[in-house]
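Homework help board

Subject: predicted structure for assignment chain

Our instructor gave us this sequence and asked us to write out the predicted structure in token form, then describe one feature. I got the tokens but I'm not sure how to describe them. Can anyone check?
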Amino acid sequence: MFGIYELTKTDPKSLQERALKLSEEAGELAQAVLSVTNAPGSAYKNHSIDDVREEAVDAAIVALSLLAHTTETREEFENELHRLMIGKCAKWSEKISPGKTYRSRGSSAGMLVSAATAIRT
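My token output:
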């Protein structure tokens, strides 16, 4: 998936360094969101919705790198991502809409919407 597993295994950062990097990226995302929503004291940063998207992707890449760091093979990484995304999306779905199942586009099997499903294909 976008070479994240391979890049992670090539990058010498430790698990702790990756976690700290995720905090940094989350902070940058928060700054962009605060600017876009005109939160007091942040309008001078002049971020756009494109900046929010870019920072969200940066945070997602680092989060996926953390997951990849904890696995031994690309297959294990992809399987764990799929398993965790399905479980976490199901939990989120149940929390916001008890009893309702969200289906991925074009799916007749009733799978929950998840990034992992899209990534695996």
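Reply (TA_rk): Your tokens look well-formed. For the description, you could write something like this. Confidence is low (pLDDT under 50) at residues 106-121. That's the kind of observation they're looking for.
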